Amino acid sequence: MKLFQRIALIAAPLAIAALLVTFVALRHRDNDRACDGREFEGSRFIVCTIDASRHQLRLASQDADGHYLRSFEALDAALGRDARRVRFAMNAGMYNDRGAPIGLYVSEGVEEQRLSLTDGPGNFHLKPNGVFWQSDDGALHVDTSDEFAATRPAARLATQSGPMLVIDGALHPRIADDGTSRNVRNGVGVHDARTAYFVISSGFVSFGRFARFFRDELGCTDALFLDGTVSSLWQPETGRRDDNHALGPMIVALNRH
After folding, report:
1. 29, 74, 96, 175, 232 from 245: Cα distances, Å
2. What are 115-157's pLDDT values in tens digits?
């Protein structure tokens, strides 16, 4: 056998193996993207996925000096070296004029603001409202505020907002199918104990369409509205960092390494 034929026979399997390794690596990279775009009922949404077995979650509200973080710029500075591990960050619950949470806020097991069951105006009080929380074992949950109050679970982190969008697979009873209130909105839905989807719309959407996106497109049996108008996203892998300087509590997803 001629030398070049022997070389070809050796090189061909190696080339195929190299292509397979490259394909797997590229596929893994695509599957590990923090956020992806989705189309639903004529609207576009950005979906950021958390796998609690692989990623870390934090809530951020104040810096080390007790000043409220009102922007991703301030959050970046407060995170220090950990800012290099950010997969994404998003505003995560309603707040007062100072930027302080108005509902339950638990960070690293410390309750900094108690659960609110009061009635009042605005989206927060469109009952049932709810709580996104993570237990000490890493499991992710979205419960109505009344459910959370009844069980009082030990939470590693928790943020309260409202209204609920999806409750046990049903849409919030007071949300119209496609009402006249349109806004940029963001929220969170839980698919299973380790998987949560943080979603921000790319344009104005109704509450009804936003809720159906969580239920019908993402398969979430429970989902919670986080806010509108101020809805903002920091996604380092694409270079997006919205410059809103009027934020309140923020959820931060971190790569473990």
Report:
1. 32, 9, 14, 29, 10
2. 999 999 999 999 999 999 999 999 999 999 999 999 999 999 9
- Sheet hosting strand 240-241, strand order edge to edge: 55-60, 250-255, 86-91, 233-235, 240-241
pTM exceeds 0.90, yes or no: no
CB-based contacts of 52, cutoff 8 Å, min separation 6: 134, 138, 139, 140, 193, 194, 195, 196
